[in-house]
Design goal:
The chain is an alpha/beta fold. The protein is built from 6 helices and 8 strands. The chain folds into 2 domains: 78 residues, Methylated DNA-protein cysteine methyltransferase domain (Double Stranded RNA Binding Domain, 2-Layer Sandwich), CATH 3.30.160.70; 86 residues, Orthogonal Bundle (Arc Repressor Mutant, subunit A). The chain is globular, with a radius of gyration of 15 Å. The N and C termini lie far apart (42 Å).
Length: 185
């Protein structure tokens, strides 16, 4: 039975996590029994990446990923090797701290195909609030599940990179877009 793309909110989520190697370094992924809860792009060392996981989910345990997480990991690894992968079937779970507006932004961002981009304003229009481009940027800056929620595929209206909150900032964003073969203005 196919799992839902995004499970409803829960105040308290028990997480497991693991680190996994990619073409850009060791990423981490955390999950609950209902979906992926976070992805972290590489820090300078695996220890630093693990420390970020521990700060976000202090009670999490390093574990062997279940099949739906193994599927997500395989997709992330393939994307970071330049393959075009659709990760919209990966189930996600957000806790109650993630506002409804952010969830709508993440839903739209998940529709952006590898190698393509949208602007913050285009996302704002698609969530039904065309004057909310700045709020869209803030939501994406707080995205707990990069790559699966591909916030790196969202650019400023003039084609500029905008921001990127993952390690390496906009240089990492540009690197991800280059890997995917996205054309920038």
């Amino acid at each position: 039975m196919k799992q839902p793309a995004m499970a409803g909110p829960r105040t308290s989520i028990r997480n497991s996590f693991c680190l996994f190697p990619t073409a850009i370094g060791s990423c981490a992924i955390a999950w609950s029994d209902r979906g992926v809860t976070s992805v972290w792009l590489p820090e300078q060392t695996d220890r630093e990446t693990s420390a970020r996981v521990a700060r976000r989910f202090p009670q999490s345990l390093e574990s062997t990923p279940p099949p739906f997480v193994a599927h997500a990991i395989a997709g992330i690894v393939a994307l970071l090797e330049g393959e075009s992968r659709d990760l919209t079937d990966v189930p996600l779970e957000f806790d109650d701290s993630v506002p409804e507006f952010h969830r709508r932004v993440y839903d739209v961002a998940r529709t952006i195909k590898p190698g393509t981009t949208l602007s913050y304003g285009e996302i704002a229009a698609r969530v039904g609030d065309p004057d909310s481009a700045r709020a869209v940027g803030q939501a994406l800056g707080r995205n707990p599940i990069p790559i699966i929620v591909p916030c790196h595929r969202v650019l400023a209206a003039d084609g500029g990179t905008g921001g990127f909150s993952a390690p390496g900032g906009t240089a990492t964003k540009l690197r991800l877009l280059a890997i995917e073969g996205a054309r920038l203005i």
